[in-house]
Amino acid sequence: MSHEFIHARVLEHLERLRLGHLAERLESLLAEAARTEPTYLDFIDALLREEVGAKQRKRISMGITIAHFPAVKTLEDFDFKAQPSVDQRLVRELATGHFITQAENVLLFGPPGVGKTHLAQWGSVFGDDVLAAAILDRLLHHSHTLLIQGDSYRLRQKKKAGLLSRSVPQATSSAAEAER
């Protein structure tokens, strides 16, 4: 059989098996294999890693598209200098996911706009401060907590743009009474 015929058949099989990334990269992968001369098993491993990686990237991309996030943010994009209260080493460690295998939780606390999802006041959520304290005690027992402090991103942007350069005067008690 000719090389062209086998090549066409391999491409057809790759497409039929929905291994489109391998079909697209077949020539470069074959050229690299010819140059590096891997074992058969290493070559198959490299092919499968390529396809699995491509499918994983596509799955993540589709998930982000479907979620309609207003902006895509990654850990690499987080400005640790703008939030010095955040322990960068702890965050990077948590990003490994090791806490999951240890059956531990991660809780983020802080005011709105400092880089975490806003959390409500627990007592008002549960309608009972004692119940809230018991639940939080149980939750915090095996948890890593990150307290994020500082100005919100929006406040920093307004200060940077000069929109908050002067302080807003507070109403005096006599002025407040006059308004009533």
From TrEMBL:
SUPFAM superfamilies: P-loop containing nucleoside triphosphate hydrolases. Keywords: ATP-binding, Nucleotide-binding. One of its GO terms (molecular function) is ATP binding. InterPro entries: IstB_ATP-bd, P-loop_NTPase. Pfam families: IstB_IS21. Residues 14-120 form the IstB-like ATP-binding domain. This is ATP-binding protein. It comes from Archangium lansingense.
